[in-house]
Amino acid sequence: MTNHDVQVLQPVTVIRDHKVRAAGRRLDDVIVYDWGFALNGRHYEQRSYVLLDDGFQINQPVIFPDAQQGWWYCDLVRVTDNGDEVIVEDLWIDVIVGPPDHPYRVLDLDEYATAAARGELSPVEAADGLVRTQRFLDRRLNRRHEVLRTWPDFPPEAVTVLSSIAFEPAWSILSPGQA
């Protein structure tokens, strides 16, 4: 992607879990943004992608062990798209995706169920999250009768395009009440 192409991308502000505000770019139904965090006294910078049509956020965690570098961590998210600002909230269900010759793993269905039982999700929201998770798995990862060991559509092409762009990271930690 050229510098001109990067300039054509729509700028957007991402609010991540009401904790981080980050500058991002939108290409069709995918948003890319860089953000940072501290863990065990070290600071990290992470690139994430919001798949608006799936309601999932994906990234290749910088803190994965060496043997899992390049693997993907996918989060079911609630997305509030206000055009130039997008709020992304984690909704517990996660999927880890390694190379196509490895099975993917679905995590935290128990946490999702607990959240639904506690009323943190309405019945309609809980059902929608399960439907979106199944659609994500079927569309992106589930192989039918294919002989070739590839993911049907993962990562999506727009993510591959956006992974090559460089833009100045601009993110900040939000204080309570700032989101």
TrEMBL record:
Pfam families for the chain: DUF402
Cross-referenced InterPro entries: DUF402 (IPR007295), FomD-like_sf (IPR035930)
DUF402 domain segment(s): 44-138
Protein name: DUF402 domain-containing protein
Lineage: Bacteria, Bacillati, Actinomycetota, Actinomycetes, Micromonosporales
